[in-house]
Amino acid sequence: MSRLLDHQRLTHLQRLEAEAIHIMREVVAEADNPVMLYSVGKDSAVMLHLARKAFYPSPPPFPLLHVDTTWKFREMYRLRDRMAAESGMTLLVHQNPEAIERGINPFDHGALHTDMWKTEGLKQALDHYGFDAAFGGARRDEEKSRAKERIFSFRTATHGWDPKNQRPELWNLYNARKNKGESIRVFPISNWTELDIWQYIHLNDVPIVPLYFAAERPTVERDGMLLMVDDERFRLLPGEQPVMRSIRFRTLGCYPLTGAVESRATTLPQVIQETLLTTTSERQGRAIDKDAGGAGMEVKKQQGYF
Amino acid sequence: MSTAPAYVVDDLVARDIDAYLDSHQHKTMLRFITCGSVDDGKSTLIGRLLYDSKMIFEDQLAALESDSRKQGTQGGEIDFALLVDGLAAEREQGITIDVAYRFFNTEKRKFIVADCPGHEQYTRNMVTGASTADLAVILIDARKGVLTQTRRHSYLCHLIGIRNIVLAVNKMDLVGYDQATFDTIVADYAAFAESIGIAGFTALPISGFKGDNITARSPNMPWYHGPTLVEHLETVEVLASVDADKPFRMPVQWVNRPHLDFRGFSGLIATGRVAVGDKVRVLPSGKTSAVTRIVTLDGDLPQAVAGQSVTLCFADEIDCSRGDVIAAAEQPPEAADQFEATLVWLDDAALRVGRGYWLKLGTQTGSATVQQPKYVVNVNTLEQLAAKTLDLNAIGVAELTTDRPIVFEPYADNRTLGGFILIDKLTNATVAAGMLHFSLRRAQNVHWQAVDVGREAHAALKEQKPAVLWFTGLSGSGKSTIANLVEKRLHALGRHTFLLDGDNVRHGLNKDLGFTEADRIENIRRVGEVAKLMTDAGLIVLTAFISPFRAEREMVRAMLPAGEFVEVFVDTPFAEAERRDVKGLYKKARAGLLKNFTGIDSPYERPEAPEVRIDTTVTTPEQAAEQIVDLLLRRA
């Protein structure tokens, strides 16, 4: 990445990397108590790698926060703990105590599961630690309402987002001044596409969860989605029997809510090849965007979803 | 859907992914904006670019087709605008109200498109989109020709310094692909462009809806021989490569100090290039050193170029911190504290002349005041008009003064060291975008006169620590009464004091000022400066002014060394102050004989964290005075 081309013209990935690093350093210089949200997915992997680059030889001067739902894939927990140790950063794991107490799970509670564990859990964690700036790995190409969100995106004291009242963001000047109670979500990889993420992982050997590569895994097919039976908590319906299939995941979340694709791609170039030739967009594997018609994500964000 | 895209990538992806990745890895990036009037078809054009570059997936396409039938404006055909108009509110209104960013690739480049809104009240979003763009696509509806909005947007793009302008004459399908129509519009636009100093532009006849001349040459317009839109976008020069050939400048973002043996300076190189061994100068101090290492996680670099984020190490232990600029030693930029600049006002609350705003330029932040604009530009007629202030969306030229030297270059030479934002100190809103033209000679020639007997010497002789006791509160709240008692006690204790009273100052120093908001700001600024001079002379200054605006009180606080400003809030409820009405002013104001009276038709902004708060409903003036004197003595 850092080797310049002969004619010293930066490639798009070099420009995107430099922009993300610049944003991270601005936040560290201007925020009181920043944190990096870490979901263990491929975007989080790139974010962590960029943070290590931005502050090298210092370790990134903020902790990692994993808002855990207890329902992630086991391989995600393994990589999470390894990466926290390797980066020399503090890992904070937050699980919503109310969700634990009420036994909220993806099988019985549908949308409430995401709301309690992720949306409420995130708010609780940010309030608890008093973080005033939280890095997130959202990209503008993911979803329509994200395309209009600023890189420094302000949240009210109750974590709401007001899309009509965003600060103008000029050049690479970021106004990080907050009013009392406000906090900032910062999206350093806003301008990256899914292909950029994959290419960056490829060029920099960024460690990612093995679930992104195809392997024989136990699956059931349900409502048109291929689900992986990752542990004994998976509730099989009458007549359902796990079947071994060669699958991989394009995006990772709670395992009972995350659809796999059948694939033989076992190397990164093969994964990228499939991604480019595929005909379904990235978030389709997740059930979350389908609520509330086309405006699903915008409504969730106004309520405080990251 | 007329023609197939000219840059089908699928083939290479399927055949040889490594070759494809290699080519993708070497792509450059172009950022551009699209702007035009409300119905010129911006969203449709962008939707078309995404569609033709296969950036729309099948599930999105299915959703788009069903949305097009339900909400579309194209009679059931695919309405590409639905793909990009993201927010629920604007989908209902059928207009793009906020700048949206989109991405697509061709074989040669990655593109980031800022989709900019067309109607007047959202100019601020257009300026936002334009500020990071290498190129602007100005859309014109072939049926309507050059409109006021076209002129406004072109002027803004030119103002922001976009050198590559594309005039896309859209909806050619609706004028029968007529060459004469196209030629007339181009001639109209050329005359206008020349009048505002746009050096050149590229005109293209297109149809975003039908796909003519977007990625493939249109069979409907054989008379057109130029490039397609995408061909043109693939070949224009990007800003970053122009910046590489300028002198080296890097604003310092952060000092990297993991342990005692490493001290590095992190930043994004704004212009030029730097190599190990290069002599550099740190501004504004002017200290020089040489670069010993360019540090990255992937190993040290021999050199680096504009657009890269790096960490530099120096041969010498010189002072360097956030806000400083590292520059080529022999070609440093200058520093100044008075400038002329163009401002684009972005906030609902108009500019307050004389008020302090935060100015952020690169990594430097200072306090800045803006003078009355020299003129504002009517963006529809491009006339220069006189103005007292800048309202939302106004563009004007004005002089600014900063409270410290700012390292800068003219915006035309360097966007990073010439572009700045102004931030309201109370609401924290970004209220203006600015572009510096030049520093004023005043700043270069008026130097601080170095004096041998300094403020410490004055204070030492008086055996006291200077301070400003700033009394604020409603008219008739008891400020002058208490201040007077405090001064008497301090005087009795042998302290050297001076009381600046609001009414008295208005008889002399400030007799030219009235009671409008602007005059009140200037009144306080002058009193602040006088109080500061008196503390330089070693005095304890007491001031009794309503000083209703928080921003001005904070401005005075910022003028003084930390700890010397003591804000005393004489907190008398409005009803109580009106009941007392010592000078009969409330009665006059109620009768409409006094305009802009604080508490009646002009606001009083309560201090948020005053050093002292006196509740006059429970504290007598004598008790208050004792309390304040105690605090002052404890402090010394």
UniProtKB/TrEMBL annotation, chain A:
InterPro entries reported in the protein's UniProt record: PAPS_reduct_dom (IPR002500), Rossmann-like_a/b/a_fold (IPR014729), SO4_adenylTrfase_ssu (IPR011784), Sulfate_adenylyltrnsfr_sub2 (IPR050128)
GO molecular function, one term: sulfate adenylyltransferase (ATP) activity
Enzyme class: transferase
Domain spans labelled Phosphoadenosine phosphosulphate reductase: 33-259
Reactions listed under catalytic activity: sulfate + ATP + H(+) = adenosine 5'-phosphosulfate + diphosphate
Alphabetic keyword roster: ATP-binding, Nucleotide-binding, Nucleotidyltransferase, Transferase
Keyword Nucleotidyltransferase: yes
EC number(s) given by UniProt: 2.7.7.4
Superkingdom as given in the UniProt entry: Bacteria
Pathway(s) where this gene product acts: Sulfur metabolism; hydrogen sulfide biosynthesis; sulfite from sulfate: step 1/3
Family matches, as HAMAP family: Sulf_adenylyltr_sub2
Function: With CysN forms the ATP sulfurylase (ATPS) that catalyzes the adenylation of sulfate producing adenosine 5'-phosphosulfate (APS) and diphosphate, the first enzymatic step in sulfur assimilation pathway. APS synthesis involves the formation of a high-energy phosphoric-sulfuric acid anhydride bond driven by GTP hydrolysis by CysN coupled to ATP hydrolysis by CysD.
Family classification: Belongs to the PAPS reductase family. CysD subfamily.
PANTHER family: SULFATE ADENYLYLTRANSFERASE SUBUNIT 2 (PTHR43196)
Assembly, per entry: Heterodimer composed of CysD, the smaller subunit, and CysN.
UniProt-recorded name of the protein: Sulfate adenylyltransferase subunit 2
TrEMBL record, chain B:
Domain Tr-type G, first and last residues per copy: 27-242
Residues engaged in binding ATP: G473, L474, S475, G476, S477, G478, K479, S480
Coiled-coil annotated spans: none
Single GO MF descriptor: adenylylsulfate kinase activity
Pfam families listed in its UniProt record: APS_kinase (PF01583), GTP-eEF1A_C (PF22594), GTP_EFTU (PF00009)
InterPro entries: APS, APS_kinase_dom, CysN_GTP-bd, CysN_II, CysN_NoDQ_III, G_TR_CS, GTP-eEF1A_C, P-loop_NTPase
SUPFAM superfamilies: EF-Tu/eEF-1alpha/eIF2-gamma C-terminal domain, P-loop containing nucleoside triphosphate hydrolases, Translation proteins
Keyword Isomerase: no
Family: Belongs to the TRAFAC class translation factor GTPase superfamily. Classic translation factor GTPase family. CysN/NodQ subfamily. In the C-terminal section; belongs to the APS kinase family.
Binding partners and assembly: Sulfate-activating enzymes, NodP and NodQ, may be physically associated. Heterodimer composed of CysD, the smaller subunit, and CysN.
Name of the protein: Multifunctional fusion protein
